[in-house]
Amino acid sequence: MNRQTKALLKENNELEKKLGKDTNEILTDIVVYIRGSRISEYNQEIIRRDITNMLIEGQERGQTAREVIGDDYKAFCDAIIAEMPEMSAKERVLNAIQIACMCLGNILLIWFVFSLVRGSVREVYITLGDIVSGAVIILSAIGIVMAITKDVFDDEQLSGWKLFFIYFVISAACILPSVFIRTVVLTVPSAAVLIIIALLFAGYKLVDNI
Question: What is the pTM assigned to this prediction?
Fold first, then answer.
């Protein structure tokens, strides 16, 4: 996220404070939906600013969010997103690199902690189960984010025991392979793992500032 986008993000965060609680909750859902679109972070913040100003002006006239933007929030967002350019090839590549750095850095950190729990301090033993768990964690995280952004306006979202069951299954799929599949695939010095983690997070921050 470059300086221009960060400045706009900060401006939008302050602007939202002018909205009432109910309107702010609707705006939050709108922003979540926009985050799942294929437009740049800067353009997402542009849309967020424009919608926030619309809601503030409506609020000052005594209008609700529905009176300002209509009943179908999803259609409203889709119409606005359609008017914005999609991310360029460069932006998509940088976004993919950033996601890769974040995912790999976190997975390596988890493996490092697991290795410490197993009693290995000098070396990180990466098992087949660790690799399977890591893949499940990454895919689950991506899937959950996509589901949340896509279905944020869905009145029939999963809840209660169904939601608990899904999270239980995902959690088990993330943890159990690492616990029961103990075949060691790779052994790496702990210092090297920590250096790689630091480099990945440095890479994440570097791309974030481009």
Answer: 0.78
